[in-house]
Design goal:
The chain is α+β, with helices and mostly antiparallel strands. The chain contains 34 helices and 47 strands. Strand 13 and strand 14 form a beta hairpin. The N terminus and C terminus are likely disordered.
Length: 1449
């Protein structure tokens, strides 16, 4: 197919946006008169060179069906000649003359006229237009060429290519289209064609062959549309061919999409009309989609480009103002427009358009840069950069300023109006003018301040607070702007409809007041806080201050602007403007005739807007939250005198009290918020930190606890009260329901907070005493404006008196409430709930006070050097039972001291006050309640005496004699002041010397002490039983017997078969290869082996005398036993056969050494399994022999059978080979470390390397901080060494413990740990150390040294300390912790069973047992037994105790 176009280059091109402009290179241009040319002069021209597809568009709105639309293909006429002097007004096309149709096919008949499309086309005037997109339906069929058929025709034929040729001597170009591009949608692009011939835009187009081509369309051509989905795609996405830079495309879309309706102007209704705002909004939407599609960027929000396009279309008379006014189109509703060729009335007849506006909107064209995003393009000539130069939407053309109303009204109309009506119209127009100025001011706030503040680079403030600042300062001012814009539009519409005389405006403002109610009170109420926030930012942020100054200068530089109006003026505009409405409307009302119904609307609008001011005033009070002068308003300040006169005296008082409750709640919530702003947040953000980061979170939790929960509850209560206040002010019926609901909801939060207050106050005092930075911070915060000279403790105490305040206010409201009111029944219920809350928190408060008192005593206890005792007083479960003054009478007279009874210790101190602080000096070692015995509380009273008393700390009869002596001498001296003695006993090592005789001031005091001591011991026993670390698990009860003291050599027990086994000395557990768990127990008469926990299975397997030590080498299958100072090795298979016929069953044991072996130790060192035994040489030297088992020799088949009794003649040790020998003076034990060994001797702990025999003695004794260490350690016997930390060890002596580092220096300031007893043996079951006194087992924590359990008994001895081949069981703590202990027993012991009374015994039974680790069943509450719940739920208990400080360790 060939389409004929012709160009005439005789006319120059002009700018595209004027009505007489000619087209540019894309073929768009103005229309004009053009001489007709003969059809034979037409030559085919390719649309690819003249009209690229993307710049074309289908014009769907002009005809009902596509095949009848004359614009369905390009206008192929000659462009008319343009007369430079021609009138710019639009000239309608000449009347159409219809000729006979070329064809008679009904498919091409017009719907209306009955003429065919060809007839209508040929008879139409030649116009200048643009080519549509590359839709097949838009291409006319032809007899001379085949083309893709219309979508609605069932034709199929492959298209033929166009051809291109040039005729010399002519300005007509003939172009052939590339066939590969025929079926390609959007295949043409401006930038893709180098052959696009530029030239003048006066293009001559004639529609001669188009209709013929349509008629000859080949129906055989098959469209490449396969599924219905494809058709939907074209229908739904047809706008993707729209080029927003072409006026022709924009005009078509505008024509199709703009909403039409009946608009009134000058009391005349105009159907199918639209406003300027409709035009701009529709164009803006079209441009948005086009730019977003082409550039892939977000939709632009700037409406200036749309306004520019609309004004261009206006100048081309694409639409006209209904009154043919000369005003430039504005983005508003003042003017009404219609299209030139819209039919009168509502009609569905086809619309025929002869001409489309043409032109290029430069700022909307594509950029030649592929990376252009329309924002920061690097290209110098990027068209999008012109967007920044467009005038503002609100700018009006010169001369378009609003004139005085009277000057615009015709003289005859003005003469017919009364003076009142003239004044009324003048005021109404003045009101409109003020509304315009107000909206302009709000626009300035957005464009001059808010947007630049967000876009400032570098930022004026941190992004974290920028949005909060904008929200707090500007509030909802943009919502106000939208509300008033809508109001102004409605007023414009009313002005337009009723021009020149506006009949009514009251209904407009009545509707607007309804909308104002949702936005204005919020803004006006928040405005004082906004001013304060802005003032603070101006004072503290110099960048923000400079930014505001810069904005003010730029604003003052604008033409016509008032000089230097600051931001504060603009932020105050809404409040001022709201106050002007009643004044102006009142003036309008005064000039309104009584017959005018608008007067009623005006009165109602005035009342509603005045009420808005009252609501805004109430909002101001509510927003202040007690701050500033507005926050101090009372109820009568917010109620007019006229309104107050309507209330009775009682009701006024009731409303005032309700107002006071709300006001107090606001102040309370503000104080809770100040806790966060003045204390919590500054402490968290302080740099450098005021409180060390590792303690900060715990400190904040202890001090402020759950204040945020209280704030959430009371913030909700305030919101509910404010809502009631806004709905019912000034006469609130009731607030009881919301207060009742809040009281029920915040109960649990107060149950947790109030008991914590004593703890919080203590933490503050403690931190201020020990942290100068924190003290300075607190003192500085007191001077904060919102602190009102109150310190931190006042703020955290606020919730407590607030509950009492509720009770008082509710009672006062009740007293002023009339009898018929429902509050008479509900207020007492609320008061009862609040009272009950106070009562329920009292036990928790008392518990917390006791904790605080306990912590104070802990921080003020002073121990003598080297005698510190960690009593675990900072444990959250610790409690103080009783305190008081008691007396003792030493040799030099009466001595008063202060006694503290905790739930685990009894402490006697001497109080000494200095600088207002009382320190308690401990003069006797604290007594654990587990070792405390109450002896006597019934002795007679004695008199205070100043004479010398001897040996009051003695025992027995001497004490009684001394008491009698005291009494007699006191009576002789006439001293009537009596003292009442009682005696207690300390069962520990330091209390063995005697009992404590203590004197109370009265019988009641002594009785109270007795009750408290018994109570604390009973509680301690119950708690320890339920939380003990180890349980006793019996291995044997009646197997091993000792003769009693009364058993003689001729006693009958020797004759009845009873075997006295002698003292049990050792044991070791082991497992056989077949999985049986056994235990071997050694005593004076041999070795017994049996199942664990089954004493009846024990059988003697070795008949040896004086067995003192045994061990197992399970990997080698050997059993080592030291008997009568001779070390033997046995095959386990020989002692406990597992398989019949074992080669070792009858094998003879080997004697490792001849005699005089004092002890041996086994372990692993550098991968070697070693057995080290010690022999004495001379009086002091200890010679150690390290031997190594030889597995090949051990597993050899025996050469000769032998019994179980070793042959004394076999001295050769075949199963072991010598490894090393070394010696130390006076050694009595050896412990394996990981790479070294530790020898325990009289010098202390000798750490030795077996490779080079180098050794070092620990602890280091030259530390000046611990001068007493040397003397104390020399006086004690070393027992064991255990790793307590990564770089720390615990050295255990028989009386003390000492923590040292890797170099052997003392690592803790507390120095030594004094044991309660005298340890004979020490063992480890990580994380606990067990110290064996003959009277009890002392269990202490390995890392802290704290006493956790006492296991009493008689003649207790450790017979297995857990040492085995791992070499570290006695040195390195295993994986056990408090939460995850090793659950297998690691320690064995034996104790004598008490003799039963009343019946004869065979002897003293020795109870062999293992210490089995347990898991605590519960965590006891303070001062509660295991069966008693704490005073308050566990989840609401006071916070944890403070972490250990350096001086506590």
């Amino acid at each position: 197919m060939s389409r004929k176009l012709s160009r005439d280059y005789s006319q120059p091109s002009h700018f595209a946006n004027s009505s007489n402009n000619t087209a540019d290179d894309n073929g768009a241009g103005g229309s004009g008169n053009q001489q007709q040319q003969n059809p034979e002069e037409e030559v085919p021209t390719s649309p690819s060179t003249e009209f690229p597809d993307p710049f074309s568009a289908f014009l769907p709105g002009y005809i009902e069906k596509a095949h009848e639309d004359p614009n369905a293909s390009a206008s192929l006429a000659f462009s008319p000649q343009v007369d430079d002097n021609a009138d710019d007004d639009y000239t309608a096309p000449p009347p159409e003359s219809y000729e006979e149709s070329v064809i008679s096919d009904e498919r091409y008949r017009s719907v209306d006229s009955g003429a065919s499309v060809i007839e209508r086309w040929n008879s139409a005037a030649d116009v200048s237009t643009v080519m549509s997109g590359d839709y097949p339906m838009l291409r006319p069929p032809s007899n001379s060429s085949e083309f893709v058929r219309l979508a609605y025709l069932d034709l199929s034929e492959e298209p033929e290519p166009y051809y291109r040729s040039e005729r010399p001597g002519s300005n007509i170009v003939e172009v052939t289209v590339n066939p590969a591009r025929v079926n390609t949608v959007d295949s043409y692009d401006v930038g893709d064609h180098d052959d696009w011939v530029a030239g003048p835009s006066d293009l001559s187009r004639r529609n001669t062959n188009v209709i013929q081509q349509i008629v000859n369309f080949d129906q055989r051509t098959q469209l490449e549309l396969h599924e219905e989905e494809e058709e939907d795609f074209y229908d739904d996405d047809e706008r993707r061919f729209i080029n927003p830079s072409l006026l022709s495309h924009l005009s078509v879309q505008l024509r199709d999409l703009i909403p039409r309706g009946t608009h009134v102007k000058g009391s005349i209704p105009y159907p199918r009309a639209f406003t300027g705002k409709d035009i701009v909004s529709t164009l803006h939407s079209i441009i948005q989609r086009g730019i977003a599609r082409d550039l892939g960027t977000q939709h632009p929000t700037d409406r200036r480009a749309a306004l520019l396009v609309a004004r261009s279309l206006q100048t081309m008379l694409f639409f006209y103002e209904v009154e043919w006014g000369a005003r430039v189109l504005q983005d508003g509703v003042e003017d009404v427009y219609m299209f030139m060729d819209d039919p009168e009335g509502v009609s569905d007849s086809p619309i025929e358009r002869a001409e489309l506006p043409t032109g290029v909107v430069t700022i909307l064209t594509k950029c030649y840069s592929a990376s252009c995003d329309g924002l920061g393009c690097y290209a110098y000539g990027c068209p999008r950069k012109g967007m920044q130069q467009l005038p503002s939407i609100t700018e009006s053309p010169v001369g378009a300023t609003r004139e005085e109303w009277s000057k615009k009204v015709p003289a005859e109309v003005l003469a017919s109006l009364t003076d009142n009506e003239i004044n009324r119209q003048t005021i109404i127009h003045k009101l409109i003018s003020k509304e315009e100025q107000y909206i302009e001011d709000l626009n300035i706030v957005e464009s001059v301040f808010i947007k630049p503040l967000r876009a400032a680079n570098p930022p004026v403030m941190t992004p974290l607070i920028l949005e909060d600042f904008i929200e707090e300062v500007f509030g909802n001012i943009l919502e106000l702007l939208e509300c008033n814009r809508r109001l102004l539009e409605v007023m414009y519409v009313r002005q337009r409809e009723q021009h020149p005389v506006i009949q009514n405006v009251g209904d407009i403002f009545l509707d607007a007041a309804t909308e104002f109610r949702d936005v204005y009170p919020i803004y006006v109420g928040h405005h004082p806080l906004a001013e304060k926030r802005m003032k603070e930012e101006l004072e503290h942020n110099p960048e923000f201050r400079l930014f505001i100054e810069k904005c003010s200068r730029q604003l003052a530089a604008r033409p016509g602007e008032s000089p230097r109006l600051d931001l504060k003026h603009y932020l105050n505009r809404p409040a001022e403007h709201l106050q002007k409405y009643p004044v102006l409307l009142e003036a309008v009302y005064r000039e309104t005739e009584e017959s005018n119904p608008d007067g009623d609307y005006l009165q109602e609008a005035i009342a509603v807007i005045q009420n808005l001011q009252n609501v805004a005033q109430l909002r101001t009070f509510q927003s202040a939250m007690g701050k500033g002068s507005t926050g101090k308003w009372e109820w009568h300040d917010l109620v007019s005198p006229e309104m107050r006169a309507r209330f009775t005296k009682e009701e006024s008082k009731r409303q005032s009290v309700i107002f006071e409750l709300i006001k107090g709640e606001m102040a309370y919530v503000r104080d809770l918020e100040n806790i966060e702003t003045m204390y919590v947040r500054p402490l968290r953000n302080a740099e450098p930190p005021i409180i060390p980061p590792n303690r900060l979170n715990q400190f904040l939790m202890d001090v402020f606890h759950n204040f945020n929960e209280l704030h959430a509850h009371h913030r909700r209560l305030v919101d509910n009260l404010h809502e009631i206040q806004r709905e019912e002010h000034p006469s609130i019926r009731t607030i009881t329901a919301v207060v009742f609901d809040a009281a029920l909801n915040f109960r649990e939060a107060y149950m947790e907070y109030i008991p914590n207050y004593p703890i919080a106050a203590y933490r503050i005092d403690e931190e201020m005493a020990n942290n100068p930075a924190f003290k300075a911070f607190v003192n500085h915060t007191v001077r904060h404006p919102d602190a009102h000279r109150l310190d931190m403790k006042n703020f955290i105490n606020r919730p407590i008196p607030r509950l009492l305040r509720y009770e008082l206010l509710l009672k006062e409201i009740l007293s002023e409430t009339p009898g018929y009111h429902e509050d008479r029944d509900t207020i007492p219920q609320v008061i009862d709930v609040i009272k009950a809350l106070g009562r329920e928190t009292e036990p928790g408060v008392q518990s917390s006070k006791q904790k605080v008192e306990l912590w104070k005593y802990n921080s003020n206890l002073v121990f003598k050097a080297g005698e510190h005792v960690d009593m675990d007083l900072l444990n959250e479960q610790r409690s103080l039972i009783h305190t008081g003054r008691l007396f003792r009478q030493p040799d030099n007279g009466i001595d008063e001291f202060f006694v503290m009874l905790f739930d685990n210790y009894l402490v006697m101190t001497h109080p000494r006050e200095r600088d207002g602080i009382t320190k308690y000096h401990v003069y006797r070692r604290p007594i654990p309640l587990d070792l405390l015995t109450l002896v006597n509380f019934t002795d007679a009273a004695v008199r205070k005496s100043t004479s010398l008393i001897r040996s009051l700390w003695g025992n027995g009869d001497d004490r009684q004699a001394d008491v009698a002596s005291i009494s007699s001498r006191s009576l002789e001296n006439g001293d009537t002041r009596a003292l009442y003695p009682f005696t207690i006993h300390h069962n520990g090592r330091l209390g063995v010397s005697g009992s404590y005789v203590i004197y109370a001031e009265s019988t009641a005091s002594r009785l109270e002490w007795k009750q408290k001591l018994e109570e604390s011991k009973g509680l301690r026993k119950v708690v320890q039983e339920s939380n003990k670390v180890f349980e006793i698990e019996s291995l044997s009860v009646d197997t091993f017997l000792l003769p009693t003291l009364t058993t003689g050599p001729n006693s009958s027990v020797w004759q009845d078969g009873t075997l006295f086994t002698g003292k049990v000395t050792c044991s070791v557990p082991f497992n056989t290869p077949d999985g049986r768990g056994l235990v071997a127990i050694g005593c004076a008469e041999g070795v017994w082996i049996g199942y664990r926990h089954d004493s009846r299975s024990l059988r003697r397997v070795l008949h040896l005398k004086m067995v003192t030590q045994c061990a197992i080498l399970e990997d080698f299958g050997l059993f080592l036993v030291l008997a009568d100072k001779v070390l033997f090795a046995y095959h386990l298979e020989a002692l406990v056969p597992t398989t019949p016929g074992s080669i070792h069953a009858s094998q003879t044991p080997q004697r490792i050494n001849g005699k005089d072996v004092h002890f041996f130790s086994i372990g692993v060192l550098d991968g070697r399994t070693l057995v080290v035994y010690m022999k004495k040489k001379g009086n002091n030297d200890s010679v150690f022999h390290a031997i190594e088992p030889v597995i090949d020799k051990i597993n050899e088949r025996p050469k000769a059978s032998g019994g179980l009794i070793p042959s004394l003649k076999r001295n050769k040790t075949e199963w072991f080979r010598n490894y090393k020998d070394f010696s130390f003076p006076d050694a009595y034990d050896l412990i394996f470390l990981k790479t070294r060994i530790t020898v325990l001797c009289t010098k202390g702990f000798m750490i030795m390397d077996l490779i080079n025999y180098k050794s070092v003695n620990i602890p280091q004794r030259d530390d000046p901080n611990f001068p007493y260490i040397t003397k104390r350690c020399d006086a004690c016997r070393p027992l064991g060494i255990f790793r307590s930390g990564e770089d720390e060890f615990l050295l255990c002596y028989d009386e003390i413990g000492l923590f040292v580092d890797k170099q052997g220096h003392p690592s803790r300031k507390t120095g030594t740990i004094e044991w309660e007893g005298t340890a004979e043996r020490v063992a480890l079951h990580s994380p606990y150390v067990l110290l064996f006194d003959t009277r009890f087992i002392e269990v202490r924590h390995l890392e802290t040294g704290r006493l956790v359990q006492i296991i009493p008994g008689t003649e207790i001895r450790c017979i297995w300390d857990g040492r085995s081949l791992d070499g570290g069981a006695a040195v390195v703590p295993g994986e056990g912790t408090e939460d995850r202990m090793v659950q297998e027993p690691r320690v064995h012991a034996v104790m004598n069973m008490p003799e039963p009374t009343g019946r004869p015994t065979r002897g003293i039974m020795q109870h062999v047992f293992e210490l089995f680790p347990t898991i605590p069943l519960y965590l006891p509450g303070s001062l509660s037994s295991p069966t008693t719940a704490p005073y308050f739920p566990v989840s609401f208990s006071p916070p944890r105790s403070p972490p250990l400080r350096s001086h506590h360790i």
